[in-house]
Design goal:
10 helices; disordered C terminus
């Protein structure tokens, strides 16, 4: 497989068909396998008297109701995020496939509607693999934690080489999931058949898949994500420096400036993240298409 051709072709596709950026933004709703730095800080401030008085007089019998409403709202937001995130991933794959089949123009409405029939299969595949990974990690972690506690940390040193191996294994699993999702959309396969197809593709082309995983996950995904997230640190740096190293009264003002800068940068961050996600998904789709003839002697279709 020509890696340079796949990477350059993926960029050509998403640059010419910028409608895929929208699906990339949607795909980010379900998470992209990376995150910006998690920075926490607090200020010692008191609530306004009106709010304190309201909380003091809040009827205890209404607490379960508000907790229930909060849970319902959270569940709705999670469901909406999963739906749009999954449709976004499918839409990028379908768009890439259509372009490869010489479709001159992509339509958002057509891609969105055409992605709906694949939703439950893609969702179930990701959920199934995630559950398996969780159970495996849980089973492996329990004896490590117990032995570490019994040996006062010495066992952890023995397990360090094994723990280090989990990192490339995680990349391989992510590549496996990506190829499984593409197989559902490209060849209209069921969940079991898609998992089998992805496994065959990974096992028969292990070197090519792991190298592409390194390029897309570690190279483009991780480094690109850090570059995109870097301005967030610059935005938060002033208020963090004052909060940690000074008791200046300028903290609220600097915090306000940081928040305004964050609000200004947020739309650009969303767009750049969507572009990055659309590029990575498009590249995985092209990888699937390039490797499929080696397995079947033919091509893949929508």
């Amino acid at each position: 497989m020509n890696f340079g051709e796949v990477l350059s072709r993926a960029w050509q596709i998403i640059w010419k068909h910028k409608i895929l950026w929208i699906f990339g933004i949607m795909a980010g709703c379900a998470g992209n396998g990376g995150s910006a730095p998690n920075i926490q800080y607090s200020f010692s401030t008191e609530l306004p008297p009106q709010i304190s008085a309201y909380l003091d007089g809040f009827p205890p019998e209404q607490i379960p109701l508000w907790i229930g409403l909060a849970v319902v709202v959270i569940l709705i937001l999670v469901a909406v995020s999963i739906f749009f995130g999954t449709i976004g991933r499918i839409g990028i794959i379908r768009g890439t496939l259509q372009v490869e089949q010489s479709t001159p123009q992509l339509s958002f409405s057509e891609l969105f509607r055409g992605s709906l029939p694949y939703f439950w299969r893609v969702f179930a595949l990701v959920l199934l693999v995630s559950i398996v990974i969780f159970l495996v990690v849980l089973i492996v972690s329990i004896p490590i934690v117990l032995l570490t506690a019994v040996t006062f940390g010495f066992a952890l040193l023995c397990f360090l080489p094994f723990i280090c191996l989990l990192v490339p294994l995680a990349w391989l699993v992510q590549a496996y999931i990506e190829l499984g999702i593409v197989s559902i959309v490209a060849d209209n396969l069921g969940i079991t058949a898609a998992l089998q197809r992805a496994w065959t593709m990974v096992s028969n082309n292990f070197g090519a898949v792991i190298l592409m995983a390194l390029i897309l996950i570690l190279g483009i995904g991780a480094i690109g994500g850090l570059i995109i997230s870097a301005p967030l640190l610059l935005v938060l740096a002033p208020v963090l420096s004052i909060a940690f190293f000074s008791s200046s009264n300028a903290v609220p003002f600097v915090a306000l400036i940081s928040i305004l800068c964050l609000v200004i940068y947020l739309p650009l961050l969303i767009v750049l993240s969507g572009i990055l996600r659309s590029y990575i998904s498009s590249a995985w789709t092209l990888t699937y298409l390039r490797l499929t003839p080696m397995l079947t002697g033919g091509g893949a279709g929508i």
